[in-house]
Amino acid sequence: xxxxxxxxxxxxxxxxxxxxxxxxxxxxxxxxxxxxxxxxxxxxxxxxxxxxxxxxxxxxxxxxxxxxxxxxxxxxxxxxxxxxxxxxxxxxxxxxxxxxxxxxxxxxxxxxxxxxxxxxxxxxxxxxxxxxxxxxxxxxxxxxxxxxxxxxxxxxxxxxxxxxxxxxxxxxxxxxxxxxxxxxxxxxxxxxxxxxxxxxxx
Length: 202
What we know:
Helices cover about 70% and strands about 0% of the residues. By secondary structure, it is an all-alpha fold. The protein folds into two domains: about 10-55, Homeodomain-like (Arc Repressor Mutant, subunit A, Orthogonal Bundle), CATH 1.10.10; about 55-185, Tetracycline Repressor, domain 2 (Orthogonal Bundle), CATH 1.10.357. Helix 1 crosses helix 6 (about 85-105) and helix 4 runs parallel beside helix 7. It is elongated.
């Protein structure tokens, strides 16, 4: 009976946890200076509830980053469902760029040793997700075989380095097309016919 009485409390706590993370993601996307109190109010919870889950601002930021990356990694199958693999590749990387822009906007908040541990921890899952997307693209013959996911992840960094606004999005679209052209399968160059009279070594 005691267990049954506590189950709703745990369920509510989990719902609050997820709600705070989602609201914090949106608030930090709008402003890296969003305060914990403003996030708590926006999430519809008391400041005490937020602090029980995330005792410091850094703890909340790192939890948001870890949560966002996990959501992104888990979204590969959904991105590929019903789409051409190359379209899924583009959509997935655009989502990744949104998350990285938020991270960059947080400045010093993600420069601590704890933050670097979290960033290092998430690198392998992200690289594995890129590998899954590349495998689907390779199977569809949209990219050439043997591409290294870590190389492609590094290459796609332009997406979070372009400027803001419409000009930045337009530049990102152009650069994306250039990169994809470079990833496509390369056809062997046709043999050049040697005109009659050209020197031919014995």
